[in-house]
Specification:
Number of helices: 4
Order of helices and strands: EHHEEEHEHEE
Radius of gyration: 16 Å
CATH architecture: 3-Layer(aba) Sandwich
Shape: globular
CATH class: Alpha Beta
Mean pLDDT: 92
Strand content: 35-45%
Low-confidence stretches: none
Largest sheet: 7 strands, mixed
Length: 152
């Protein structure tokens, strides 16, 4: 590190202001639509107003995002994304841990669920999630549902 330079810290927060939600949407667009080829109409699904959005930043730079919503006794995490340039820095894992802690403190939910891209199953397993059900296609990408029990 250069003399006098200071390391920027990572922050993860619920995005409440419109410009922070817009930063989440921009990250999702870059990762899902541009990088992974998800059709725009599948990425923009009309559910964003029903979800809480999470934004990870290093300094003022957005480096990861996700959304979650409460559904019948559990919380569903969706749209977890980290740009290629930021992968391998534990940003995605930190976002998931943040959401799980938030859910444990702020709700009566008994579990957290998500639909994981099959290539990311090990990533979620390391965070305590277990798959259930069979493999399915979502936006042309193989997925499996996973769950983390909050009562164990």
């Amino acid at each position: 590190m250069l003399c006098g330079a200071k390391a920027l810290s990572k922050s993860i927060r619920i995005a409440e202001k419109q410009e922070k939600i817009a930063a989440c949407m921009d990250l999702r667009w870059a990762v899902f639509v541009q990088e992974q080829g998800v059709p725009e109409e599948e990425e923009i699904d009309g559910e964003d107003d029903m979800c809480s959005h999470v934004l990870a930043q290093v300094g003022d730079r957005p480096v990861g995002a996700a959304r979650f919503k409460f559904v019948n006794g559990y919380v569903k995490i969706q749209r977890v994304c980290v740009p290629k340039s930021e992968r391998g820095k534990n940003i995605g894992a930190d976002i998931i841990r943040f959401i799980v802690r938030h859910v444990q403190q702020a709700s009566e939910a008994t579990s957290v669920r998500l639909g994981a891209q099959v290539h990311a199953l090990d990533f979620y397993r390391k965070l305590g999630f277990q798959e259930f059900g069979g493999e399915y296609m979502d936006a042309g990408i193989p997925h499996m549902d996973m769950q983390l029990d909050l009562n164990s």
